[in-house]
Amino acid sequence: xxxxxxxxxxxxxxxxxxxxxxxxxxxxxxxxxxxxxxxxxxxxxxxxxxxxxxxxxxxxxxxxxxxxxxxxxxxxxxxxxxxxxxxxxxxxxxxxxxxxxxxxxxxxxxxxxxxxxxxxxxxxxxxxxxxxxxxxxxxxxxxxxxxxxxxxxxxxxxxxxxxxxxxxxxxxxxxxxxxxxxxxxxxxxxxxxxxxxxxxxxxxxxxxxxxxxxxxxxxxxxxxxxxxxxxxxxxxxxxxxxxxxxxxxxxxxxxxxxxxxxxxxxxxxxx
Amino acid sequence: xxxxxxxxxxxxxxxxxxxxxxxxxxxxxxxxxxxxxxxxxxxxxxxxxxxxxxxxxxxxxxxxxxxxxxxxxxxxxxxxxxxxxxxxxxxxxxxxxxxxxxxxxxxxxxxxxxxxxxxxxxxxxxxxxxxxxxxxxxxxxxxxxxxxxxxxxxxxxxxxxxxxxxxxxxxxxxxxxxxxxxxxxxxxxxxxxxxxxxxxxxxxxxxxxxxxxxxxxxxxxxxxxxxxxxxxxxxxxxxxxxxxxxxxxxxxxxxxxxxxxxxxxxxxxxxxxxxxxxxxxxxxxxxxxxxxxxxxxxxxxxxxxxxxxxxxxxxxxxxxxxxxxxxxxxxxxxxxxxxxxxxxxx
Lengths: 271, 346
Fold this sequence. Notes:
Oligomer: heterodimer
CATH class of the largest domain in chain A: Alpha Beta
CATH superfamily of the largest domain in chain A: P-loop containing nucleotide triphosphate hydrolases
CATH topology of chain B: ABC transporter involved in vitamin B12 uptake, BtuC
Structural class of chain B: mainly alpha
Distance between the termini of chain A: 37 Å
Number of helices of chain A: 9
Shape of chain B: globular
Number of domains of chain B: 1
C-alpha cells in the first residue's frame, strides 16, 4: 500500500522538528530513514504512523488521509513499533502477540479463528514460536525485539514502521532483525525503519532517506546517494565510503571527530 | 469461549488450548471467592448485637414464622451486607483501574485524592442540610468524584509526569480535600460520632436506600470498567505502542478516570472514606490471576466485596453491641500491606 507524505510538518510546542517534508513511499519498498540525533527522523516516523498530529500537511495511506480514518482502522493496515518499548514486561510472548489483535477485535474482544491464525503466523514469521511461554522480562534484547515485531505483525499490516529496531542489539542480533525485516518485505510488507547504523541501512534497504534539521537532505538508492560529500553534509563529520566487495554496496565509515563544513569533506577511495 | 466450539468441537477445543489466559487459576479463585462470600453472608446474618440461631436465620430468610428474625435479617443485616459488598467491589475496581492507568502499583483512590474529593462533596451537602436524602448525597459524591478524577487527569497527563510526581500530587490533593472536610465537619453542628464514622469509613446504619441510591451509578460504572479493561491492557504496553494499536490514549484515560470517580464516589456516599481497599485488592488479584485486566478487574471486585464484608462483620462484633468504624479494620489490614509493598516490591 502506497504511502504519500505531503508537505508534512511536525513540532513540539514552538520547536519545528520536521519541516515541510514530501515523500512517496511505494508499496512493497524497503526504506531506511537516517540522520544525526535531533534531525527529525523519529518525529517524521511518528507523523507517518499517526502517533503525533502534524502541524501542517498530511499523510495518505493509499488514497486516504490517515487523519480521516479511525485510529483502529489505520492500525489494521499500518503498524508502528516505537523505539525500545518498555511496557508489558510481565507478559509472555504469546500474550504480547495477542495484544496485536486489538485493532481487529470487537468491543468484547472475543477471539476468533482469524485471531488464532494471525497470531500463529506472526509468531512463526518473527521466529518466536519457541519463546511463546517465556516472559518478556526474561528475554535477551534480540529476542524481545523479535517478540515486539511479532506483535506488530499480528496486526496484519501492509506497512510496518519501526523506530531504531536494532538499537541496543549486538551485531549478530542486528543482522538477525534486519534479515527478519527483509523476509517480511519479500512477503509484500512495506518496511520503513529509522536506522542509526549507516552500513545496515546501505546493506538492507533499497532506499535511504537522510534527514537533517527537519528536512530531507538526500534520498535514493544507497549506492547512488551514500557518497562522502553528502554524508559529511548530513552528519557533520568527514566520511570515507568503502565498497563491500561481496555486494558492491557502500559502507560509510566516519573519519575523524572534528566537525567539518560540507566544503571540507574529504575525498573518497571509492572509484 | 469461541463461537466455533459448537460447530466443530474438536477444532474448538484445540483452539481453546491456545487461549492466552490463566483460566485454570481463575476458576479456582472464583470458586474460593464465592464460597468465602457465602460463608461471610451466613455469618453476617447470624451474628450481631442480637445473635440468631441457624434455625432463626433460616426461618427469617425463608418464611414469616420468625417475624423478629425476619425483620433483623431483611431490614438490617442483608441490606448492610449487600452495601458492604458493593462498596468493596467499587473501591477495588477503582484501585485496579487507577493502578493500570497510572502504571503505578501504589495508586489507589484514597492515595490519589479521589476519595477525599467525593468526601468533600458529601460533607458539604450533609452540613448544609443534615436531612438531605441519600440519592442527593450520591449525586453530590458523583460530582465530587468526577471533579477529583478530572483534577488528577490534568495533573497527571498534561506535561511529563513521573509516577513519583503523580503520587505526590495525589498526596497533596488528598491532604487539601481532607483538611477541607475536617474543617467543614468541625465548624458544623453535625453529630460528632457521625463525623467520625464518615471520616474513618463505616457502614453504620446503612440500609436499602443506600443500595437504591448507588445502583444507578454502579451498574453503568461496573459495565464501563469491564468494557474498558481490554483497552487498559493495551495502554499498559506504553503510550506509543497503544496509539499504534489504535487506542486513543488520552480519551481512554479520561474515560477510565471518570469511571474511577463515579465508583469511588458511590463507596464514599454509602460508607464514607474507607481506605486501602482499592490498594490491596488489585494486588491480591494480580497475584492470583496475573495482569490481564479482563480477569484482574472482576477478580479485584470479588476480593473487594469479600474484604469489606469481612471487615464490616468484624467491626460489628469486636465491641458488640457497640461497633467500631469498618474503615479501621481495612486500614489495619491495608497499612501493613502498603508498608510491605514499599519495602519488598520494586
